[in-house]
Specification:
Number of strands: 2
Structural class: mainly alpha
Oligomer: single chain
Shape: elongated
Strand order of the largest sheet: 1-2
Largest sheet: 2 strands, parallel
Distance between the termini: 45 Å
Helix content: 40-55%
Radius of gyration: 27 Å
Order of helices and strands: HEHHHHEH
């Protein structure tokens, strides 16, 4: 989620902008009702906003990824996702173990094989390696897609909680620290201005989701299924023509 972070940060900025504009319009005495967080900020025929309303002077930071992963709902959802992909992890591990076994056979017996046996084993390894890499990539993409869906769903419900906290506590600027500088906008920030913890507590209270029993909390962007086993070692070199051929091909 987490180019994903850019989407999350953009979503927060858009929602905050709409929220601030709604507050400004209400303060100016406009007859329009405040727009919901995800609604367009204004229609082409809406009167221009001329009165600015300060939303506070405090500056704060929040790690959105961490907040999503640390809240009870996020922990529960990501734990379920990891368990869902355990069979795929086991399948990939089996494929990788088979490749490593064949690679070990090639490394230890390659110089004793005849040319055809050697070439057939090399082709077998390469074919299985390609199948493994395709399955690995498919699993990673599917996992990340479902991971992003969870994060976006929680984010949509968390944004109003963040908005209320920011307004109630006099913040005028809130920055996302999910990505370190220079990928993210914050070069340095102390823990005293971080509101990730209070936001997680507030969201847990609102959602009513109990804390899961056990399980680990991880940044959504860092959570990956164990589908990256050690890649087999390089292919052994073909034996020189002077080597005596083996009487039996490898099994």
């Amino acid at each position: 989620m987490i180019s994903k972070v850019a989407r999350i940060s953009l979503a927060i900025l858009v929602v905050f902008s709409g929220f601030a504009l709604a507050q400004t319009t209400a303060a100016a005495g406009g007859s329009q009702a405040a727009a919901p967080p995800n609604a367009p900020s204004a229609t082409p025929t809406a009167p221009p906003v001329t009165t600015a309303v300060a939303l506070g002077t405090r500056v704060g930071t929040i790690n959105i990824e961490q907040a999503i992963a640390a809240c009870n709902e996020g922990r529960k959802e990501f734990d379920v996702l990891m368990k869902k992909f355990e069979p795929k992890q086991n399948e990939l591990k089996t494929m990788n173990d088979e490749i490593e076994s064949l690679q070990k056979q090639l490394n230890t017996q390659g110089d004793k094989m005849n040319q055809d046996a050697h070439d057939n084993l090399v082709k077998q390894i390469e074919a299985k390696r390609k199948s493994f890499e395709r399955a690995q990539q498919d699993a990673r993409e599917e996992f990340q897609s479902q991971q992003n869906e969870i994060a976006q769903r929680i984010l949509q419900k968390m944004v109003p909680v963040v908005q209320k906290y920011v307004i109630d506590n006099g913040y005028g600027l809130l920055l996302d620290t999910s990505q370190p500088w220079p990928q993210g906008p914050v070069i340095m920030a102390g823990p005293s201005i971080d509101i990730t913890g209070p936001i997680v507590e507030a969201y847990n209270a609102q959602s009513g989701v109990p804390a899961p029993a056990g399980g680990t909390t991880a940044k959504p962007g860092a959570v990956k299924p164990a589908v990256s086993p050690t890649k087999p070692a390089g292919t052994a070199t073909k034996p020189p023509a002077s080597n005596p051929p083996a009487s039996n091909p490898p099994k």
